[in-house]
Specification:
Elements: H1 4-15, H2 19-31, H3 36-56, H4 62-79, E1 92-97, H5 105-116, E2 120-125, H6 130-140, E3 144-148, H7 155-168, E4 174-177, H8 186-189, E5 195-197, H9 201-210
Length: 211
């Protein structure tokens, strides 16, 4: 559990665009043994939700919101350097965001968590066309294909991607995360074999350990 004093120090620095102090806080916590999952949930996720709400209410500009997102992206990318990592597992993950989705911060955290557990990862990033996802599955033959699905407006594109993966690679394990399915996922997904939806980072870690 990260103390409130650290959270508010981090949040205020993030809001001011002070990347260097944000980094100092994150690195200090990690070097003191704070679990990287706590950093992701209690600093990154919590602060970005608050900043997003402030933007929606007109209390900060879109530029300030973008700066906070870019700082967070940088911190996610470097955080793995300070986390204890397992020996290589020999397993691989291909993680993609669906076509027309441009937010990939959550996916970047997922990639790091798999790598901490010794997985090799392939991450093409946001807004990946369905055809390219299928090509990468054919080329890399990953143990798991992960799909980040955040915006409900892309519901049709999401299921088209899942259906195409299962049509071309029927036995391919598929892992799904993101807010796009938060309120409606069980019925339709249940028709796809080897397809798992994870709601939380703890659920994700349980999936990695049990695979």
């Amino acid at each position: 559990m990260i103390k409130e004093v650290y959270y508010w120090d981090y949040f205020n620095s993030l809001l001011k665009g002070d990347k260097h102090h944000c980094k100092e806080i994150v690195v200090s916590l990690l070097e003191d043994g704070t679990d990287i999952k706590e950093i992701y949930i209690e600093l990154f996720q919590k602060s970005l939700y608050k900043i997003g709400k402030m933007w929606e209410e007109g209390n900060i500009s879109i530029a300030e919101e973008h700066i906070a997102s870019k700082i967070t992206e940088y911190l996610i990318d470097i955080s793995i350097q300070y986390a204890k990592q397992s020996e290589p597992s020999g397993k691989s993950l291909l993680l993609t965001c669906i076509d027309k989705e441009f937010h990939d911060l959550g996916a970047r955290m997922v990639v790091n968590l798999f790598e901490i557990h010794g997985w090799k990862t392939i991450f093409p990033g946001a807004n990946t066309p369905k055809k390219e996802v299928l090509n990468m599955i054919e080329i890399y033959k990953p143990d798991v294909v992960g799909i980040s699905f955040s915006l409900y407006i892309n519901y049709v594109r999401f299921f088209e991607l899942v259906e195409s993966i299962k049509s071309n690679f029927p036995e391919q394990p598929v892992l799904i995360g993101g807010q796009g399915l938060a309120n409606d996922y069980s019925n339709k997904l249940s028709s796809f074999r080897n397809t798992t939806y994870v709601r939380t980072i703890d659920d994700l870690e349980d999936y990695i350990k049990s695979f």
